[in-house]
Amino acid sequence: MRFIDEVRVEASSGAGGPGLVAFRKEKYLPNGGPYGGDGGKGGDVVFVATRNKNTLLHLRFKQQLVAKNGKSGGPARRTGAGGDDVVVEVPIGTIARDADTGEVLADLTEHGQRVVLLAGGIGGLGNAHFKSSTNRAPTYAQPGLPGAAAAIAVELKLMADVGLLGYPNAGKSTLISRLSAAKPKVASYPFTTLTPSLGVVQVPGTYDSFVMADIPGLIEGAADGVGLGHRFLRHVERCAVLLHLVSLDPTEAEAQGAPMDRFARINHELKRFDPALAERPQVVLLSKSDVSTDEDTAAAVQAFTAAGHVVYVASAATSAGLDPLVFDLAARIRAETDS
C-alpha cells in the first residue's frame, strides 16, 4: 500500500429540499387549509477517525465528495427525506483545513471521533407554517437553504509517542524493527526508509507500551527540500519525546563529521523547519556501539554530556543498551501525559 499523507479534495454538502405548497382536500373538509410539508435537510460531509486506516490513499482516488440534496416536502405536512451524508473514514491524526483560508476544520485524534466538515442546508418550510388570521390560504413555501462547498486540504500527522531523528543510515529503521513488530526496509545504504513507519514498543517486564515513529533521515539542506525527511517532519510534531540517533560508526564519522557536528547540523535544519519543534527536549542515542571503539564511544558520551544532553549508548544489532533506553522513554512519556 502506498503511503499518502497529503490530499486535496473538493467537497460540497447537500442543499435543503424546498417546502411544498399544498392544501388539505378531504370529503368532509372542503376548506381544509394549507397542508404542505417541509423540505428535508441536505446531507453533510463528515470525517470519522479510525484506527483501521493508516494512509490517505483512498482519498487520492475520490477527490469529489458530494452529499445528496434533501427532498421536497410532501402533502399532508409530510417532511421530505434528508439527503444522504458523505461519511469518509480517515486515519487517526488527520487534519482537514480549508485549502483557501488555511482554517482548521477538523483535527481527528481519537478512534471514532466524528466531525461535520460541511453541514447540509436546512429544508424550507411548507405553506402550512404561513397560515395566519389574515392569510388563510398561503401560496408560499420556503426554498431550501443551499449547501456549502469548499476545497479541503487533508493532511496526516502520525500519532506517536516517540519520534526518531537522525541522519540517513543512523540506525533508526534497525532500532524500530528491534524494539517493535514494525518491519521497515533495513539496508547498509542511506535512504532505505522512503516513508514513515510506526511500531508499538513493549516496555520489558510491564504491561506498558508506547508508539514509536521512524521517518526518513534528514540531511543538511533538508529545510530547503534536500533529501526526503523534510516532507515527513510533520509526523513527529505530535510526539512527546524526540529520540535523536547519532551513529558511532567510524566510516560515517569520516564522511559526515564528528557525532556532535552531525547532531548540531540536524538540529539546525530542524530549527529552520519549525523553531518550536527544535526546542522540544531530545534524548540522544549513540547508535551502532558494536562497531565503535571504547575510546571513541567515551569521547562522544563526554561531548554530549558536557553539552547538557541526556545520552544513551546502544546497539540495535546486538540489543545491547536498549532496555535502559526504553524504560527512560516510557517514563518521559508518562511525565508528559500527566503534566
In words, what does this structure look like?
By secondary structure, the protein is α/β, with parallel strands linked by helices. The chain folds into two domains: 6-156, Distorted Sandwich (Spo0b-associated Gtp-binding Protein, Chain: A), CATH 2.70.210.12; 162-338, Rossmann fold. Helices cover 20% and strands 23% of the residues. The protein has seven helices and 14 strands. It has helices at residues 57-60, 172-179, 250-256, 259-273, 275-278, 294-306, 322-338, and strands at residues 6-12, 45-50, 64-66, 86-91, 94-98, 104-108, 114-118, 149-156, 162-166, 197-202, 209-214, 241-247, 282-287, 310-313. A six-stranded mixed sheet has the order 10-11-9-12-13-14, with helices on both faces. A five-stranded mixed sheet has the order 3-1-8-5-6. It has a three-stranded mixed sheet with strand order 4-2-7, with no helix packed on it. Strand 13, helix 6 and strand 14 form a beta-alpha-beta unit. The chain is rod-shaped and about 105 Å long.
How do you describe this structure in short?
The chain has 339 residues and is an alpha/beta fold. It has helices at 57-60, 172-179, 250-256, 259-273, 275-278, 294-306, 322-338, and strands spanning 6-12, 45-50, 64-66, 86-91, 94-98, 104-108, 114-118, 149-156, 162-166, 197-202, 209-214, 241-247, 282-287, 310-313.
